[in-house]
Each structure stands twice: as structure tokens, then as C-alpha cells.
């Protein structure tokens, strides 16, 4: 029973309600509130950065090629190459594609686009295009008259809707000295990936895109979908060595690698800054306990005269600080998880109320604020905050154990 006494006294100090102890209770509440804010914001920020990382991998890299194999003269017979590449255990699927740059125009307004020519049957194997457009709409681009899919933001800029006809203008070869090539396409669907791609993306069939290229009888290359996204440079390099001269390759680490590393760096830097907020909240525990020790010198002296050891005196204040840390950290984790789940809707409400858009596709890679809660982040933040609070209790507890009964009771 004697061993439990420091714990009982420490917990009573944490939630003291008597008038004489209201200052202690108030200071404990402030320390807990600081931890809740710091831990909650840290969890929310980390979840948002995780969301950006996930959207980059799943949405952006679900539409643009993870890796490609090209030939400088184009690839006329692409089917044997697709069969050869898909025989590799590191490659899940391969699909032919045509890529060219041009302008899409409606009336007097024109916008730059990246035009992709795809084979719908193969394209669904290497990309997540059917997450953003219906499969039957995708299949319709190779049926009947020339048809095209446009990014939603691009269509909004041009004031284009489904059913309109647009003109595609592709600069001629030889540095633009040759005459540009033009084609007319019917818009059959809008791609709404909520990423930066929506502002420049145009998709049509291989058949309708080939006449616009400098090699009308050959595709630009073959797109690859990999087992492991991060093996892309190695897989491409290995196959280029096997294919020989004339072939070249590219992968997502070159086209979007900087964005991926920027997100990772931002997560680390923002996490560090928010960790400082948690550290400041933990420092409040030191301030609280020091004031408690000063306020409770008389109580400490009486306990010492009743036979309580210095170690038990330390245990009282370690218990109080640990209780503050445990309560604040637990509430902060709960608040952070709730905010992470609601942050996307909260931002939408704020944008609707004030008529603003915080994330625009011409500036940011996404037009919304994603969020993903990871268990490892919750554990890391919770353990770190709790350990900080525990360490913060050691100095005030040691100071309490050094209080001399005679000095403390002299003026009581």
C-alpha cells in the first residue's frame, strides 16, 4: 500500500479541485491543452503529407507512365515488344502509346496539351484511367469518328462540353519548319483526376493520333506498369541493354521524381517544426511541476516527516507529470485523427463559404487536400510526446526531493 501512495498523491495533485489547489489544476489543464494542440496538429499535418504522397503514387502515376521504352524512329511492330516485356516478372503489363504536344482549340481560344494516343484494351492494364472515366466512354474513342477525352480543367478553360468538336494542331517536324498537322475531334468525355494533369491532358485512340505524328506508321513507344514502382530506373536500364541501339527509356523518377522528393522533404521539415510545438508543450510540464513543487513545499515537508523517502517524493511528481503527458497525448491523438478525417470536408466548406480555391491545378499537383492516417505515425508521435513529458518530469521531481522539511516548515 505504501508503494501506491506516491501514485495516489500524484493523481490527486493532477486533478485537484479544492480552492487552495485550483492553481495547480489550472496549470495541469494548460499543459494538457498544449499537448492536445501540438499532438493533434502534428498528426493532421503528417496525415495530409501522407495523402499527397498516396495521391502522387496512385492518381498522378496512375495516369502518366511509370516507365516507357521508346525508339527514335518509332515502333512499327509493337506487339512483339509488348510480349517480350510482359514476360519479365518485374513488369505487370505493357501497352503501346503515342505521345505528342500540340494545341487544342475551340473558336478563337487555344490551350497547350499533351496528346496521348492509346489502345483502350491495353491501356486499362497499365493505368487507372477507368477510375476517372467510364470504361465504355474510353472504348468509344476508337469507334466511329475521331473522338477525344479532355482533362476537366482544360475543358473548363476552353468552355468545352461533351459533344463539342475541337481542333488539334500539332507542330510540324524539323523544328517546326514543316507545316503543322491538324485534326478535328469530338469530345466524348472529361477526365476528372483532381490533379495537375486535368489542365493539359488529351487522350484519343492510336488510330486517330498516328496521323498527327512525324511517324504515322509507328507508335512512340510502350508504357510499362511495374511490380515495384521504385524499381523503374533499374528495369528500364536492363531492358535498354537487351534491346540495343536506337531504343531509349524514361521513368517516373525523372518526370515526377522531384515532386515526390519535395513531398517527402516537406513532410520531414513540417514534421520537425510541429515536433517543436510538441516539445514546447512538454516544456510546459516542466513549468507546471516547478510551480507545483514551490506551492507544495509544506506538503512535501510533512510527508517527509511522516517517513516518505526522497524516491517516493520524486515518484509523486513523476506520476503527476506522466498523467498530464498520458492524458494530453491520448486526447491529442484522438483530435488529430478526427481532424485528419475531416480536413478535406472542412477545406471544401471554407472554400464554398468564402468563394476561394486554396489548391489550383496550375500551381499545385492536386486540387483538393488529401489525407491518410498511418499507424506508424500515430505510434511515433504518441511515444515521442509521452517520452518527452516523462523526461520533463525528472528535474522538477528531483527538486522536490531536495526540499528540506525544517526549511519548508519554518514559516508554516
Commentary on this structure:
The protein has helices spanning 5-14, 22-63, 78-86, 120-126, 135-139, 152-158, 206-209, 232-243, 252-255, 257-295, 297-305, 310-354, 375-401, 405-409, and strands at 67-75, 91-106, 109-118, 147-151, 165-170, 181-191, 201-205, 219-226, 247-251. The protein has 14 helices and 9 strands. With 412 residues, the chain is of the alpha+beta class. The protein has a 6-stranded mixed barrel. Helix 2 packs antiparallel against helix 10 (257-295). Helix content is 55%, strand content 18%. The longest helix has 45 residues, at 310-354. The radius of gyration is 32 Å and the shape is elongated. It has 2 domains: 5-58 and 260-409, no CATH class; 65-255, no CATH class.
Q: How many β-strands, per DSSP? A: 9
Please outline the major beta sheet: 6 strands, mixed, barrel
How far apart, in Å, are the first and last alpha carbons?
29 Å
Uncertain regions spanning at least 5 consecutive residues: none
- The number of distinct helices, counting runs of at least 4 residues, comes to 14
Structural class: alpha+beta
Helix content range? 40-55%
Q: So what's the overall shape?
A: elongated
Radius of gyration: 32 Å
Average predicted confidence as pLDDT:
83
Q: Strands of the largest sheet, in order across it?
A: 2-3-7-4-6-5
Residue fraction in strands: 15-25%
Order of H and E elements: HHEHEEHHEHEEEHEHEHHHHHH
**Count of the domains:** 2
Domain MacB-like periplasmic core: 28-206
InterPro entries: ABC3_permease_C, Lipoprotein-release_system, LolCE_TM, MacB_PCD
Protein name: Lipoprotein releasing system, transmembrane protein, LolC/E family
Pfam families: FtsX, MacB_PCD
